[in-house]
Amino acid sequence: NAGVTQTPKFQVLKTGQSMTLQCAQDMNHEYMSWYRQDPGMGLRLIHYSVGAGITDQGEVPNGYNVSRSTTEDFPLRLLSAAPSQTSVYFCASSPKGQGARGYTFGSGTRLTVV
Amino acid sequence: AQSVTQLDSHVSVSEGTPVLLRCNYSSSYSPSLFWYVQHPNKGLQLLLKYTSAATLVKGINGFEAEFKKSETSFHLTKPSAHMSDAAEYFCVVDNQGSNYKLTFGKGTLLTVNP
């Protein structure tokens, strides 16, 4: 099993550009989420999904869009990148019924917006 | 709302000496608590988790943590530090109403000196 796969691992964007961070899991996990990590802030929840077709906002959703058309994929879209979105982004998934106890994290995407 | 406070942003120990990373939590219900470790430029790895079973939780690599409800603490300890323990450590609590959501502490950077 590959687990949770994030692509790309590194990305540099110019202010105003758009891009999609990809997250895929092959464990048939129902729950998926996106976090951002900033120095001295820990990880903060951006968006999450409890199943295909269902998404909701987390703590810091502004500037990000998500969709969940399949169980496997949960892409994160930046429509117009800003320097404040420079961060490391982690995707995570969990099986039904296990909640936070069953989390598996991806290896992260390091995004720099210049 | 749930919250986590890691009392030290940086802890420095000598190899072979004990490690203590302190975490206090705030929750209006019985939470699940976790410790994650992140080595430089790596993803997050689960060290251990407390989910209302035994209050003394043993994790990987010789780490353990004790849940103390009266003190609202979940401190992480290890009897003897190894150079490979140098990393950032996050104390994490799940969120009431949606046990898939996690609230992270701001992290404690552990330095191990030879």
Low-confidence stretches of chain A: none
How many β-strand stretches of chain A? 11
Output the helix-strand order of chain B.
EEEEEEEEEEEE
Order of helix and strand elements from N to C terminus of chain A: EEEEEEEEEEE
Radius of gyration of chain B: 13 Å
Q: Per the principal axes of the C-alpha atoms, what is the gross shape of chain B?
A: globular
Assembly status: heterodimer
Number of helices of chain B: 0
pLDDT under 50 segments of chain B (min length 5)? none
Termini Cα gap of chain B? 41 Å
- The helicity of chain B comes to under 10%
The pair of chains with the biggest contact is: A-B, 22 and 20 residues
Query: How many β-strands of chain B, per DSSP?
Result: 12
Mean pLDDT of chain B: 91
Estimate the strand proportion of chain A: over 45%
Q: Percent helix among the residues of chain A?
A: under 10%
The SS-based structural class of chain B is mainly beta
Shape of chain A: globular
Largest sheet of chain B: 6 strands, mixed
Note down, in words, how this protein is organized:
The complex is a heterodimer of chains A (114) and B (114). Chain A has no helices and eleven strands. Helices cover 0% and strands 51% of the residues of chain A. With 114 residues, chain A is mainly beta. With 114 residues, chain B is mainly β. In chain B, strands 2, 5, 6, 10, 11 and 12 form a six-stranded mixed sheet that branches. In chain B, strands 3-9-8-7 form a four-stranded antiparallel sheet, with no helix packed on it. Chain B has a two-stranded antiparallel sheet with strand order 1-4. In chain B, a hairpin with a 4-residue loop joins β8 and β9.
Offer a concise description of the structure.
The complex is a heterodimer of chains A (114) and B (114). Chain A has 114 residues and is an all-beta fold.
Write the layout of secondary structure elements.
The complex is a heterodimer of chains A (114) and B (114).
Chain A: E1 4-7, E2 10-13, E3 19-25, E4 31-38, E5 42-51, E6 54-57, E7 64-66, E8 76-78, E9 87-94, E10 104-105, E11 109-113
Parallel strand pairs in A: 2-11
Antiparallel strand pairs in A: 1-3, 3-8, 4-5, 4-9, 5-6, 7-8, 9-10, 9-11
Chain B: E1 3-6, E2 10-14, E3 19-21, E4 23-26, E5 33-38, E6 44-50, E7 56-58, E8 64-68, E9 73-78, E10 87-95, E11 98-104, E12 108-113
Parallel strand pairs in B: 2-12
Antiparallel strand pairs in B: 1-4, 3-9, 5-6, 5-10, 7-8, 8-9, 10-11, 10-12
